[in-house]
Amino acid sequence: MITKRIIPCLDVRDGKVVKGTNFTGLKEISSPVELADEYSRCGADELVFYDITASSDGRKLFTEILTETARNVFIPLTVGGGINSVEDFDRVLKCGADKVSVNSGAIRNPALIKEAAKLYGNQCVVLSVDVKRVEGQFRVFAKGGREDTGLDAIEWIKRGIEDGAGEIVLNSIDTDGVKKGFDLEMLDAVCRISSVPVIASGGAGCIEDFIKLFKTLPGVDAGLAASIFHYGEVEISDLKAEMAKNGIPARII
After folding, report:
1. Is the pTM of this model over 0.85?
2. Active-site residue numbers?
């Protein structure tokens, strides 16, 4: 049985890890280098590094802090932020990333997913989608959740998979940072149409939220969270022990 992955997320702004609520009110937490090293040693299955203002600032992802972070990580590392071309994919991979996450760049240039998958393989291309409910529809947002694209999220994800995305990260803006549980309704809608792994992001507040996620939606492959890990509210070792108790396959170190 395939183990369910636990993935801490480093949202990085100006070289520091930050966290907010519903994509706003960002507060500095720590150095991504220090956190990455800690998570790599304490049982995280993968790590996500997002330069969260690269797209909205119209600049490329900071590579210096990424390179330093990658040196300290011995688990798969997914990197995103300001990914607008296959050249950006190449640059980030050379800094030590294992997978590249594309969001706003694919919205601007939908051909990017297909081009990157052809060059680097589907397993390297992660489609990250920021989604919010608007008038009863799951709507795709761009630029770190700041801009409503008008795109239907389910149709957009279908297209991304068809074009070669090997993994989907579903970020629910509605539940982000609220700590009242993952957006199960939104995740269920995506799992129903996805033929590739789906990572749940946004809303985790306690260990039970992960247990409920994996038990309710066995099609979800991984749970991603930030502040509960950053602030020590949930220890990954404790989470995995509880998963094992509940019959949820997990990698225990």
Report:
1. yes
2. 11, 130
